[in-house]
Design brief:
Elements (H helix, E strand, L loop, with lengths): L1 H11 L3 H4 L2 H23 L12 H88 L4 E11 L12 H14 L3 E4 L2 E2 L6 E4 L2 E4 L2 E3 L3 E6 L5 H7 L1 H13 L2 E12 L9 E2 L15 E2 L1
Antiparallel strand pairs: 1-7, 1-8, 2-3, 2-7, 4-5, 5-6, 9-10
Helix pairs in contact: 5-6, 5-7, 6-7
Length: 295
């Protein structure tokens, strides 16, 4: 029971600087120190110390102004806190919005990456297809003779036997047998005296002259074939046309000089217009009218 009473007595005897408001205490102490300073100066000068007076009204006004300023600062602090909170909320909203935009852009980038990879793969397939088509076109041009060709191969120089008469001279069918044998042996392109052989051309005799693609060629005949020079002659001997050709050489005495070449250049065959066949209805007796061809 004694300790509470002592606690209450202690609270009653708290010093004035503990219970006095801070602003009042600062002002009062400042004024007291000023009065004490003035009193010391007057005592040193032998004058009477000034009588204690109440605080001047300007001091009270200063205290009031300080209080108002403190209230304003507190209000501004509260208002600034609200502004800061709103700014923080707006910044958080912007961050979330930008984060959603970044996610959307990342998805777009992923889709574009996949689309680009698919385009690259499709382009690679198309490139392979184009290369295959180009190779097929070149192969077709080579086989049909409508494009120049060059490569390794074999050249047969064929001459009439010495003192040959009309019956023992080289004729169109003899050269045709050699050409057919070369194609069967694996030749990719054949020419006689720089006249390319193809499906639209031909080898024909006109009297004693040989014509290739409608143009005369003279003996000795240079029959050039593009192919593998290591096997072309041997494979020619294995074909039926090749065997027939070498039999003619033995019987008729043709002078044949073969040689392997690293690079044979053959021109393209001359272009010839195709002809369109016109089909007409047959008459009751089976005859037809209007058969023919137009250039």
């Amino acid at each position: 029971m004694g300790e509470p009473r002592m606690h209450q007595d202690t609270e009653r005897r708290l010093p004035e600087h503990v219970t006095t408001p801070l602003l009042t205490l600062i002002t009062t102490r400042s004024m007291d120190e000023d009065y004490a300073h003035v009193a010391r100066q007057r005592a040193a000068a032998g004058q009477e110390p000034p009588a204690a007076t109440r605080p001047h009204w300007m001091s009270l006004a200063a205290i009031a102004v300080l209080g108002v300023m403190a209230a304003i600062v507190a209000a501004q602090t509260d208002r600034q806190a609200e502004v800061d909170e709103l700014s923080r909320a707006a910044l958080v909203d912007q961050i979330e919005s930008r984060r959603d935009e970044v996610r959307s852009l990342q998805r777009t980038v992923g889709e574009l990456t996949r689309s680009n990879a698919a385009a690259v793969s499709s382009n690679a397939r198309l490139q392979e297809l184009l290369e295959d088509i180009d190779n097929r076109v070149r192969r077709a041009e080579l086989l049909t003779g409508f494009a120049p060709a060059h490569g390794p191969g074999v050249r047969f120089t064929v001459a009439n036997p010495p003192g040959a008469d009309v019956d023992s001279e080289i004729r169109d069918e003899d050269l045709a047998i050699l050409v057919d044998g070369l194609f069967e042996a694996g030749a990719e392109a054949v020419a006689i005296n720089d006249q390319r052989i193809n499906a639209l051309g031909g080898i024909r005799n006109t009297n004693r002259a040989v014509h290739v693609n409608g143009r005369p060629v003279n003996a000795p005949y240079a029959v050039s074939a593009i192919g593998d020079p290591r096997t072309l002659q041997a494979r020619l001997l294995q074909t039926s046309q090749g065997q027939e050709w070498f039999a003619l050489v033995d019987v008729l005495g043709f002078v044949v000089t073969p040689e392997n070449l690293d690079d044979i250049r053959l021109p393209a065959a001359p272009e010839r217009p195709l002809r369109d066949v016109i089909e007409v209805d047959a008459e009751p007796n089976g005859a037809t009218e209007g058969e023919g061809s137009t250039p």
